[in-house]
Design a protein that fits this description.
The complex is a heterotrimer of chains A (659), B (388) and C (219).
Chain A: H1 7-10, E1 42-45, H2 64-73, E2 78-82, H3 85-88, H4 97-112, E3 116-122, H5 145-162, E4 168-175, H6 176-179, H7 185-202, E5 208-211, H8 214-221, H9 226-229, E6 235-237, H10 241-247, H11 260-268, E7 274-279, H12 288-304, E8 309-312, H13 346-358, E9 367-368, E10 373-377, H14 389-406, E11 411-415, E12 425-431, H15 436-447, E13 451-456, H16 463-469, E14 471-476, E15 480-487, E16 499-505, E17 509-513, E18 517-521, E19 527-534, E20 537-542, H17 546-552, H18 560-576, E21 584-585, E22 590-596, E23 601-607, E24 613-628, E25 635-646, E26 651-658
Parallel strand pairs in A: 1-2, 1-8, 2-3, 3-4, 4-5, 6-7, 7-8, 10-11, 10-12, 12-13, 13-20
Antiparallel strand pairs in A: 9-22, 14-17, 15-16, 15-18, 18-19, 19-20, 21-24, 22-23, 23-26, 24-25, 24-26
Chain B: H1 7-17, H2 21-34, H3 39-51, H4 55-68, H5 73-86, H6 90-103, H7 108-120, H8 124-137, H9 142-156, H10 158-171, H11 173-183, H12 201-213, H13 217-230, H14 235-247, H15 251-264, H16 269-280, H17 286-299, H18 304-316, H19 320-333, H20 338-350, H21 354-372, H22 374-384
Helix pairs in contact in B: 1-2, 1-3, 2-3, 3-4, 3-5, 4-5, 5-6, 5-22, 6-7, 7-8, 8-9, 9-10, 9-20, 10-20, 11-16, 12-13, 12-14, 13-14, 14-15, 14-16, 15-16, 16-17, 17-18, 18-19, 18-20, 19-20, 20-21
Chain C: H1 3-14, H2 18-30, H3 35-56, H4 61-73, H5 75-78, E1 90-95, H6 103-114, E2 118-121, H7 128-138, E3 142-146, H8 150-154, H9 157-165, E4 172-176, H10 178-182, H11 184-189, E5 194-196, H12 199-213
The chains are: A alpha/beta (659), B mainly alpha (388), C alpha/beta (219).
Chain lengths: 659, 388, 219
């Protein structure tokens, strides 16, 4: 957690100069309006080919300067470009001068427009065949020793040429499409280590990164890349099309789809700064307004959830060949922010507006309120088939994350085995099993004053359940087709209400209280929700894997009372444990991010709804004024509550002063 | 010739039929550990992965089954459904459904799915042909009708599409089920012999309702007459009579009975239902239908179909945003309501939200195909060695 | 109008006398009851009486059926009118040149026709000159241009330019399609007077155009 910095240090008085006699008083000096935020750069992927009919040899054979001028004008500061091994080294050991010149053109254009390049060495865009060296004899460039030696030569050659080049900001070893060819963690880490060492021989300082999201690659290949990512200086988070189809297949402007980018970002946040890249829709099915709405949500989600920067999926739409029977291309690198004619799309206007807001977010002046609650990803998530935990758990965790967001709890994501000391509240959604060490950690966590919400995930319960949660587990009652809740103790876990809803529940633990308070039951009195004081803390047990059930039923059509139950329990537990938010909101679908400052605070309110709405914000202190972050006249409030009108998928970035 | 099943496959099959997903998956892996080229183990695994909405895994397993046996019809079904539910794979989907429709020409679902795959790929004529083929096989195929309504909406607007929606809705058994749910009948059918029904009012009403559900309208009429002879203001009897007339296409008699019932009890849900359905058949009575269905949704908000009926009447008045709210209420109550999903799709189309419309139709297909339980039929036929 | 007229209508049903039934309706209509109210004020109570008579056994099943046939027969006399009154407003609409998206256009056109607009649908892939030609031909003052791609949305400016060149600056251009829904400034940039985001929005915007721009007049 970054400490909040005092603004006074950032505002040193200017050195005194001899005062000049002026006949008229000088106009009041205005602080320059920032255009870009160096601490939160906006980037874009600049692919080598924009038309499907072009051949791999046409790699960056275009007017790069004009494109980079437009990119810079859009307040984008980072551009990821892709080296083509095939073009640069057409024959073994022989580098093509013309190709090297084209690379130089990229660098020169970046320099000319004050852009920074991220040079990606080994990427697959499914079009330019960049790693398909004709002399490679179909050997695997990831594992073949000879090819890896040639890769080292290429990388060192490029790095050596640009090691003093200020227009290059980082070296990206490979993109996810290339990395998805690895079949083991060992092979991946070995490859990364080898390339990294080769770069470091030539360039000891410039950051090295690996363009891969730890969750999406694991899902696609079964290879956990975290060890390899940890060898680098920066991390990446992004949503791929297959991962979207797995985690939240549905409309992109409402429901779970609007939380997936920040969920992956939060999952990627460990020790390294994380850039959210690949922001954009995955197919041409969406209208320009849906594209813009989705990108807006993803950009602001990143800023509101501790990203260190963002990057757009593609600069220009790929001009795909029209062929029967489909007139669209399934590749996910298809959709850009300008169209095939080079004209900006509405999404680019969103990027500009976002840049104007992000430019005003000086991390030395404003710090995001700390997350003292976390969703825990169980270790079983890393198990492969036939265990289904690896398939169920990410979906359940996403639903838990959404419930916490709907309760306006500042929430992070941690993994079983992580240090838990920074948190006051933990949500463990629908886990079938935890390790003995985790149970011990949990017991210590609760005893020490932490709160935990645990939902039963099926199978046998660990003996620790009895100790921590104060319930006697009598076995799995099996699936149910309706979800019934009867509140036995109103007010104990928030404002719960009884209901009956049509919903498939995969398991239902048969329980008896063994010290715990039964807060809610099913229709016939079987405990549904219990709470137990254990040591200094509180342990809440949910008798059914509710987060998994929401994910596996239809997360876009979850019965209203069910979603309300989950967020009420999450919110109430966090609040009583001191992990709740200082600022409250009456609208679950409005996500809040509260940045604390010295003289003023900044509040982001992001709508996860494709309909218009007004969110009422309540603060513990009287709000004096509210003002759009980008400027304008402050509105006088003089109350502890005020309404924020939000357009469909809209966002408000507000500067707040307190009276 | 029947296909031999190993004991591991039998165990997996048993668990899969019982819906025990984790245990069944484990059993499949045990079967594959012994014989990794057994198409039955792969097809079961594909089905199980599909049941868990793990589409990439379902595609992998079903593809493997087809590679091992190109005649494995249940694998085509699982594969096609996985492509469709995952979305964005219409090219593959067309091929699979086309294949299955060839192999099993009488398989209605294959034609409906093929039509949807064609529609997603903008082959409108081919899609309409597929749905018409499905209706030739089963004139009550609700989803084929709804798809045709959507196709009509795209070409000719809501005024043309709405009657098709209503026809589809009335063919859909769920609409009749709503009436009986409003009446308070239990879900299961009980055999009734009118001659043995006792003299008590409740027993007669129950029996009349049951007989009406079993489409024995004469039997029901006899009991209703007895009830009305005892009390001509018996609103329940009048409401059942209205429904029975409606089902016999005697709309004026139905209207007369429903209106009479409502003069005694203005919020009577069963009478409101019948009156609303009658009104909605007349384009000039759109406002009347909406008024009646607003009242019905208010007195019976727990039934998703009351919101659907309201939404459809609002479509007739071109109040699309209100219709969307009503459809959404229906979907929240019952995500599997195919009719509400298609209605929502129609509203999205009026707003130019094509992707959302497409998604609602995919969800409709998702629930509809889950409900059919077609996999086990094809699986059993495959194991028995017969044609699907 | 009183319940006596409803009773008379009911009696005409029971007597299987459609001519009398029509007379009752015409009498009530001439007394000042508008067509849209006949169903509720006359027909509904008459049918309720009919239902009550059947329920009480005052009429038998056969009479009930025959009376219902008569009621159905004269139903068209009491039905509220289906079609809305002609607004007198002529509209020209079509999808922009090089754009083949038709769904939104077709749905909007149908919705507008239903409420009484005179719709000239030029179809898809319509050149600016064709919009102008039809505008001149019909005397319309309102044009709806649909475009779903960025390129065709931007090209709508050619319609405005062509209208201006022909002295038709008074024409109201309304635009519809994803690009305009995403970016309102695009509509202004192409010289449009308003944006339509769907069928219901079309009805709303056109109603406003009628009152604000056309002053409630037909055109």
């Amino acid at each position: 957690m970054a400490e909040k910095k005092r603004t006074s240090s950032a505002r040193k008085p200017a050195a005194k100069t001899t005062p000049k006699p002026t006949p008229k008083p000088a106009a009041p000096e205005r602080a320059p309006i920032p255009v870009r935020n160096p601490d939160f750069p906006i980037g874009v992927d600049y692919y080598p080919l924009d038309e499907e009919r072009r051949s791999p040899g046409d790699w960056y054979d275009r007017d790069v300067d004009a494109d980079f001028a437009a990119i810079a004008a859009a307040r984008i500061s980072l551009v990821r470009v892709y080296a083509s091994w095939r073009v640069l080294e057409p024959q073994v050991g022989q580098y093509d001068e013309d190709a090297s010149e084209r690379l130089e053109t990229l660098v020169t254009a970046a320099r000319a427009h004050d852009l920074k390049l991220i040079m990606c060495f080994f990427a697959d865009d499914r079009l330019a065949e960049m790693n398909d060296v004709p002399w490679g004899k179909r050997r695997d460039p990831r594992t073949d020793d000879y090819l890896i030696q040639r890769e080292l030569s290429l990388v060192q050659r490029v790095v050596n040429r640009y090691r003093a080049e200020s227009a290059v900001s980082a070296w990206d070893l490979a993109n996810e499409a290339f990395l998805s060819g690895f079949t083991t963690e060992v092979a991946l880490e070995k490859w990364v280590t080898t390339l990294r060492e080769a770069i470091r021989e030539v360039d000891p300082d410039r950051p090295i990164l690996l363009g891969v999201d730890p969750e999406t690659l694991l899902r696609a290949t079964g290879v956990d890349p975290r060890g390899a990512i940890d060898l680098c200086e920066r991390a990446t988070s992004h949503l791929t099309a297959p991962y979207r189809a797995y985690i939240a297949e549905g409309p992109v402007t409402s429901g779970p789809a609007t939380y997936t980018d920040s969920f992956l970002l939060r999952s990627s946040l460990r020790d390294l700064p994380v850039t959210v890249d690949g922001i954009g829709v995955h197919s041409l099915d969406y209208s320009p307004s849906e594209e813009a709405a989705y990108v807006r949500t993803a950009l602001y989600s990143a800023l509101m959830n501790r990203a260190s920067g963002v990057s757009l999926r593609r600069w220009r739409d790929l001009e795909a060949e029209k062929r029967e029977p489909y007139f669209r291309d399934p590749y996910e690198v298809l959709v850009g922010v300008i169209d095939t004619a080079g004209e900006p799309k509405p999404v680019l206007a969103e990027v500009r507006r976002f840049a104007a807001v992000a430019a005003r977010m000086d991390p030395r002046r404003y710090a995001l309120a700390p997350e003292r609650a976390a969703v825990i990803i169980p270790a079983e998530r890393y198990e492969s088939l036939p265990s289904l935990a690896g398939l169920y758990d990410p979906r359940a965790c996403l639903q838990a994350y959404i419930a916490a967001k709907e309760a306006h709890v500042p929430v992070g994501i941690a993994r079983e085995g992580d240090e838990l000391g920074a948190y006051h509240t933990l949500y463990i959604p629908s886990a079938a099993k935890l390790s003995p060490a985790m149970w011990a950690d949990l017991a210590a966590f609760v005893q020490g004053g932490g709160s935990v919400v645990f939902s039963y995930g099926g199978g046998d319960a660990d003996p620790a359940v009895r100790e921590i949660f104060g319930v006697e587990f009598l076995g799995d009652g099996g699936p149910r087709h309706t979800f019934t809740c009867r509140v036995a103790q109103p007010g104990v876990l928030g404002d719960l209400a009884s209901f009956d809803a049509r919903m498939e529940l995969p398991h239902y633990a048969r329980l008896t209280g063994s010290g715990a308070t039964v807060v809610a039951t099913d229709a016939t009195g079987n405990p549904l929700l219990t709470t137990n004081h254990y040591g200094q803390g509180k342990a809440v047990f949910m008798a059914t894997p509710l987060e998994r059930a929401i994910a596996q039923n239809d997360p876009w059509a979850t019965p209203t009372p069910v979603r309300r139950l989950l967020r009420t329990v999450y919110g109430s537990v966090a609040m009583s444990a001191g992990a709740g938010a200082m600022i409250e909101c009456d609208t679950p679908e409005a996500e809040l991010a509260h940045f604390l400052g010295e003289s003023d605070d900044i509040l982001f309110v992001l709508s996860h709804n494709a309909e218009k709405m007004t969110a009422t914000i309540t603060t513990p202190r009287v709000v004096a004024t509210v003002q759009d972050v980008r400027g304008g006249k402050p509105a006088e409030v003089g109350a502890k509550a005020f309404g924020v009108p939000l357009a469909p998928n809209g966002v408000a970035a507000l500067r707040i002063t307190f009276g | 010739m029947s296909v031999a099943r190993s004991s591991q496959v039998l165990a997996a099959e048993q668990l899969a039929r019982e819906g025990k997903l984790p245990a069944a998956v484990e059993a499949c892996y045990e079967a594959l550990a012994i014989a990794d080229r057994d198409p039955l183990a792969h097809v079961l695994l594909g089905h199980l992965m599909l049941a868990g909405d793990f589409y990439d895994e379902a595609i992998a397993a079903s593809t493997q089954a087809i590679e091992l046996d190109p005649d494995c019809a249940p694998a085509y079904l699982a594969l096609g459904l996985a492509y469709d539910r995952r979305g964005g794979m219409w090219d593959q989907s067309v091929l699979v459904w086309h294949e299955l429709a060839e192999v099993s020409p009488n398989l209605v679902t294959a034609h409906v799915q093929l039509g949807e795959a064609f529609a997603a790929a903008a082959f409108e004529e081919e899609s309409v042909d597929s749905w018409k083929r499905a209706l030739e096989l089963d004139p009550k195929e609700a989803r084929a009708n709804y798809n045709l309504a959507i196709a009509a909406l795209k070409r000719e607007g809501m005024s043309t599409a709405l009657p098709t929606f209503r026809v589809a809705g009335e063919l859909d058994p769920s609409q009749d089920e709503l009436f009986f749910a409003l009446l308070g009948l239990p879900a299961n059918d009980i055999s009734i012999d009118p001659a043995t029904v006792g003299p008590l009012r409740e027993g007669r009403l129950f029996a009349a309702g049951m007989l009406a559900r079993q489409e024995d309208y004469f039997g029901a009429a006899d009991l209703l007459r007895l009830l009305l002879d005892e009390n001509s203001e018996d609103v329940d009897a009048l409401a059942i009579a209205a429904y029975a007339y409606l089902k016999q296409e005697a709309t004026t008699e139905a209207m007369a009975c429903a209106l009479r019932a409502l003069t005694y009890s203005v919020d009577m849900p069963t009478a409101l239902y019948t009156l609303g359905v009658v009104y909605s058949r007349f384009p000039g009575l759109s406002k009347h239908a909406a008024r009646v269905f607003i009242a019905l949704a208010r007195v019976a908000p727990q039934h998703s179909l009351t919101h659907v009926l309201l939404a459809e009447s609002l479509l007739g008045l071109q109040r699309f945003s209100q219709a969307k709210r009503a459809y959404r209420a229906a979907v929240r109550l019952d995500p599997a309501c195919v009719r509400a999903r298609f209605g929502l799709a129609a509203v999205h189309l009026t707003e130019g939200s094509y992707a959302e419309a497409q998604w609602e139709m995919r969800r409709a297909a998702y629930y509809d195909t889950k409900r059919h339980g077609l996999f086990w039929r094809l699986f059993d036929e495959y194991v028995a060695g017969g044609d699907a | 109008m009183s319940s006596e007229e409803a009773t008379r209508l009911y009696q005409a049903f029971v007597d299987q006398d459609p001519a009398s039934a029509i007379q009752v309706i015409e009498r009530v209509r001439s007394s000042g009851v508008p067509q849209v109210q006949l169903f509720d004020t006359l027909y509904v109570p008459a049918l309720s009486l009919l239902g009550g008579a059947w329920a009480s056994g005052a009429i038998d099943e056969i009479t009930f059926t025959q009376a219902s046939v008569v009621a159905e027969q004269i139903g068209s006399f009491v039905m509220p009118p289906v079609a809305k009154a002609d607004t007198g407003v002529t509209l020209v609409l079509g999808t922009m040149h090089r754009d083949r998206h038709s769904v939104m256009k077709d749905i909007v056109a149908s919705a507008l026709k239903e409420v009484g607009y005179r719709v000239n649908d030029l179809g898809i892939d319509v050149r600016p000159a064709d919009f102008l030609e039809r505008l001149e031909e019909t005397g319309a003052r309102v044009v709806l241009v649909f475009a779903e791609t960025m390129a065709t949305a931007r090209a709508v400016i050619r319609v405005r330019e062509m209208f201006a060149a022909s002295g038709r600056d008074d024409a109201v251009i309304l635009v519809a399609g994803g690009p305009f829904a995403a970016d309102a400034s695009l509509a202004r940039a192409v010289g449009a007077n308003g944006i339509i985001t769907g069928a219901e929005s079309a009805l709303r915007v056109l109603a406003r155009v009628r009152t604000d721009i056309l002053g409630g007049e037909a055109s």
